[in-house]
Write a structure and sequence with these properties.
Blueprint: H1 2-5, E1 12-16, E2 19-30, E3 35-46, E4 49-54, H2 63-70, H3 75-78, H4 81-116, H5 120-140, H6 143-152, H7 160-226, H8 241-262
Helix pairs in contact: 4-5, 4-7, 5-7, 6-7, 7-8
């Protein structure tokens, strides 16, 4: 009862006094802001009964199961409580893949954005999405231990024919955990790609500034020399001195651009 009433627990299972208790998280994808929302759910399996407890009454992932319960010939109606117990956990795990598919689309969009337009907003998007992936990992990874605990409990509440269904859920949980881990690695790679793109862009900017500085250096030297307070400076008294110096200040940068191009510096 304490675990049911307290939220924020790590997913776990207990076999107490002839009942199986599972505590895990349902996750939802918020399409408006692209975030992951979590909700704790507790499921109790006893002799011929299943009780579930949710934080919110207005949303869950069990609509498909509700439709099956209404049908008289459905497996849920034909099997015992342990199958209903499995069905609840299976729907929760299957919904993980739906959320991860949407996260995968966000990762692909972010990768395209990084490749074509790396800016401060992109960095914020990376940090936000990385936090969502961390939440996903914390939610999905413990489910493997939870399902393993059910299979190893050897509880009389789980019939032998139902164990194969839990083994299937375990396989899905392992896939979900591995996919969440892959997403985490992808986010690390995207962050590295962003840093590399920003560094490359900065290097291009520095290259342009360095070239401009080199082109202006001869002009600065010439104007500096002819701006000195000496009495006798060559060409100072020449009527064409200004035009000569102007031509020289134009020719030298043009010659430097030709040399830089030949050396493939830009």
């Amino acid at each position: 009862m304490d675990d049911i009433l307290s939220v924020g627990h790590r997913p776990k299972m207990d076999n107490i006094d002839g009942t199986l208790f599972c505590l895990l998280s349902m996750i939802y994808f918020n399409d408006e802001d692209g975030s992951i929302e979590t909700e704790q759910i507790s499921i109790v399996l006893g002799n011929n009964f299943v009780i579930s407890f949710q934080e919110e009454a207005y949303k869950d992932v069990f609509d498909l199961l509700r439709k099956k319960i209404v049908l008289k010939n459905s497996k849920v109606r034909q099997n015992k409580a342990d199958y209903l117990f499995y069905s609840l956990i299976d729907l929760i795990v299957d919904n993980y893949f739906i959320v991860m598919d949407k996260l995968g689309e966000r990762i692909e969009d972010l990768e395209e954005d990084i490749a074509h337009n790396s800016n401060k907003k992109t960095s914020q998007s990376i940090n936000i999405l990385r936090k969502e992936i961390i939440i996903l990992k914390r939610t999905v990874k413990p489910i493997r231990d939870l399902i393993n605990g059910i299979l190893k409990s050897e509880s009389e509440l789980i019939e032998e024919k139902t164990e194969k269904y839990f083994e299937d859920v375990l396989h899905h949980a392992i896939q979900a955990s591995e996919l969440a881990e892959n997403y985490h690695d992808m986010m690390i790679n995207l962050h590295d790609l962003y840093i590399n793109n920003v560094t490359l862009k900065m290097n291009e900017i520095m290259k342009v500034l360095a070239i401009v500085t080199c082109l202006l250096a001869p002009v600065a030297i010439i104007t500096g020399i002819f701006g000195m307070n000496f009495i006798n400076i060559p060409l100072e008294q020449n009527k064409d001195g200004f035009l000569i110096m102007l031509v020289v200040m134009i020719i030298i940068p043009i010659w430097m651009i030709f040399v830089f191009k030949k050396k493939n510096w830009f």
